[in-house]
Write a structure and sequence with these properties.
Blueprint: H1 3-8, H2 10-16, E1 21-26, E2 32-36, H3 43-58, E3 68-73, E4 76-81, E5 84-87, E6 90-99, H4 111-119, E7 124-127, E8 133-136, H5 138-143, H6 148-151, H7 156-159, H8 162-178, E9 182-189, E10 195-207, E11 210-219, H9 221-243, E12 248-252, E13 257-260, H10 262-267, H11 272-275, H12 290-301, E14 307-315, E15 321-331, E16 340-348, H13 360-371, H14 375-382, H15 386-400, H16 405-414
Helix pairs in contact: 13-16, 14-15, 15-16
């Protein structure tokens, strides 16, 4: 190549920027007009080289034989060619200097990068078309329980099982035929016989004048296993949510429903699509025990408590009410505020039309009635007259739609007024939903 080609060919300029060469164009006073190449990292070093070259050229003992000479500079040896040319009507000197002892492109010209690649945690390799390893780093060799020196010179089949070797050769041929990088995930067999997962890039690379296949990968076996376990857990949770029959919902810290099961939609007699995104408090009746529920919610969100069991009165789309037992548990990702709250409904009463509120005395009468007390015993216990007890019982039969004493007790249980799991009978909550 000559100096004119170096100056005028832009693609060649780009190539020389990656090589240990230096080209220049100077005027008659050796003022630098243009320069390039990858031999010198900065303009100051390039100018020092030109000054050194000019001094060498001015020596009576030094001359260019056929426009060529050898020059020592900063402990490096350069082969110099400097033909004369004319540019834009002015005399100028163009030249090219090639470092005589420079490593080829596939060598260790950039030592720092080579050492980094050798000891990088990501396995990397270079193979030729025949599947022979030209280079591998320590991480890649570690996959096979050996050293890079043992890997270089071997073929794919020397290290991998026939099935893996066939897979890797097919990937190599894809890269060579397409001539473009490919990012993919692949499975391989580890030296201990287990199956591993890797993600990375495989791409064409020029090595010693031939097109080879290079690759760099990250082992994602543990990550893939964790993701599979997470997917399985999510699938199990969805199955539990949708098929257990338990109404449940995932609530945001703002009380909005983000997920819900089909049983939850059935409980509120609405479509699941209408339920998701709705504020949970709109599904609760305005009863005195809401204050206790709000305090429990604040404790969950601030993570002062992790789970709580309470009760509330739910209101469905038709306006019917029912007392339900709620189990609330936090879902947290950090030591700060909770991220979500799971709400699960266990015991629930029969849905009913809203009733006028019951007094504390009426609820106590129902408890004693369920215990088997007579009207006289109830009157003595509450220090009321028999006439007052008869009035309350008559009033309760009308409110709860029960004609007899046994029916009145049964309605008190199915409507959630009395707790089904307690004896002696007691109210389902200290502040009853109808009070």
């Amino acid at each position: 190549m000559d100096g004119k080609a170096v100056v005028d060919n832009s693609s060649l300029k780009a190539l020389l920027e990656r090589l240990s060469v230096f080209w220049w164009e100077v005027d008659e006073q050796w003022h630098l007009l243009e320069r390039g190449g990858g031999a010198f990292a900065d303009l100051l070093t390039a100018q020092r080289f030109l000054d050194h070259l000019r001094q060498e050229m001015s020596s009576p003992r030094r001359s260019l034989e056929d426009g060529r000479c050898r020059v020592q500079f900063d402990g490096r040896t350069f082969e110099v060619r400097s033909p004369q040319a004319e540019s834009q009507g002015q005399d100028c000197t163009r030249g090219l200097a090639v470092e005589a002892d420079a490593q080829p492109a596939g060598g260790r010209q950039y030592a720092a990068f080579a050492e980094f690649a050798d000891f990088a945690p990501a396995p990397a390799f270079i193979r030729d078309r025949a599947g022979c390893y030209l280079w591998a780093n320590h991480s890649y060799a570690h996959l096979y329980g050996t050293t890079p020196e043992q890997v270089v010179g071997s073929h794919i089949e020397d290290l991998d099982s026939p099935s893996d070797a066939a897979q890797f050769r097919a990937l190599d041929q894809e890269i060579l035929s397409r001539g473009k990088p490919v990012r993919h995930n692949l499975s391989y067999h580890r030296s201990d016989g287990s199956t591993g997962q890797a993600a990375g890039h495989r791409f064409p690379a020029q090595e010693n004048g031939q097109t080879c296949v290079a690759g760099i990968y990250v082992d994602i076996t543990e990550h893939a296993r964790a993701m599979n376990q997470r997917r399985e857990a999510e699938e199990n949770l969805r199955a539990l949510r949708d098929h257990s029959g338990l109404p449940c919902a995932l609530l945001s810290v703002n009380g909005r429903i983000e997920q819900a099961g089909t049983a939850t939609a059935e409980l509120f007699r609405t479509n699941l699509s209408d339920l998701v995104g709705r504020r949970a408090h709109t599904l609760l009746a305005a009863t005195p025990d809401l204050r206790e529920l709000r305090l429990a919610w604040e404790g969950l969100i601030s993570r002062r408590i992790r789970r709580v069991e309470t009760s509330a009165v739910l209101v469905d789309s038709q306006g019917h009410q029912r007392r339900a037992q709620l189990h609330l548990a936090t879902v947290s990702r950090s030591a700060g505020r909770a991220a979500h709250v799971w709400a699960v409904v266990t015991h629930q009463s029969l849905a009913h039309e809203p009733h006028p509120p019951l007094t504390a005395a009426q609820i106590r009468i129902l408890s004693l009635l369920a215990e088997g007390s007579t009207n006289g015993e109830i009157a003595t216990s509450l220090r009321l007259s028999r006439q007052a007890i008869d009035y309350h019982l008559s009033r309760l039969r009308g409110l709860l739609g029960a004609a007899t004493r046994p029916a009145l007790v049964a309605r008190a249980y199915v409507l959630g007024i009395l707790s089904p799991g307690a004896w002696p009978p007691r109210p389902a909550t200290t502040t009853h939903p109808l009070t």
